[in-house]
What does this fold into?
Amino acid sequence: MPLPTPVLLAPVGVLSIAHPEAEVAVARAAKNLRVPQIVSTVSSKTIEEIGEVLGDHPHWFQLYWGRNNDFTRSIISRAEKAGYSAIVVTLDTRLFAWRERDIKNAYLPFLYNEGLANYLTDPVFLAEVGDPSKDKMQTMMHFANCFSNPSSTWEDLSVIRKCTKLPVIVKGIQHADDAKRAIDNGADGIVVSNHGGRQLDGAIGAIDTLAGIADEVGSKTTVLFDSGIRRGADVFKAMALGAKAVLLGRPYAYGLALGGEQGVTEVVANLLADIDLTLGLAGCTSWKEVSKERLHIVS
Ligand SMILES: Cc1cc2nc3c(=O)[nH]c(=O)nc-3n(C[C@H](O)[C@H](O)[C@H](O)COP(=O)(O)O)c2cc1C
It folds into this structure.
């Protein structure tokens, strides 16, 4: 699928903690700038509300894949109906990392049912939980059971493969062997990512894994990249090392916190301008001319 820009907005959950308009403000900015948006399962607004703003503009749905296959089928079908054109399955967050600051502050927005918009509007979830407003803690516990499944295997990807005709992209790949397993089990693309270094302490930097993975599987699948994209030069390097496009995460969330839709627009528009200049300054007129030979790799 051709994309209007080499940048997509990464799925960032619970954006109401940054701004009350959350993913809807991001959607308005994304559409105006023609940057595709990937919406998280744990968004603060529903996939339908966000999809309505985005209309025909490209948007993908990121799936946190839990134990309840009926919920998985239900939410994928809602995403399809709301015009999402790919399913991004995140595999590196099946357990939350040891995050000292969150533990110290007893910080977990889900405790207050923040970020549960898609669960609290889902017929399968509601049939199981009853009236969610009665007991927020019980709703949160039910969500926690539904949210992820640490025991799922590569073969289980077939569950997702079977319930949608949309392209399935696996996010959180850090090794060529896993990239091959993802493809063997039906993935149409991968996102090389270490979740911005927020999951496995001591994990290899995502950019250091990119070339090896792209060399192995880049001819068979679409390779995307995130974690640490901040400037035009970061995008150029990732594209030269084999990515077909990159995802931007925290920078747009910071823009949202500071200025809502306008804040997201400023951050992303500045990055797009920086990318154009970097491409020109590197002597290229299109991404087709960008390859590893353009880089001086220092080992
Ligand atoms: C606050 C926060 C929430 C996130 N939520 C999600 C999420 O819901 N789904 C997901 O796949 N990744 C999530 N991510 C990971 C991002 O999609 C991305 O992989 C990561 O932030 C690295 O990109 P960056 O360095 O540009 O931020 C989250 C990251 C942050 C910082």
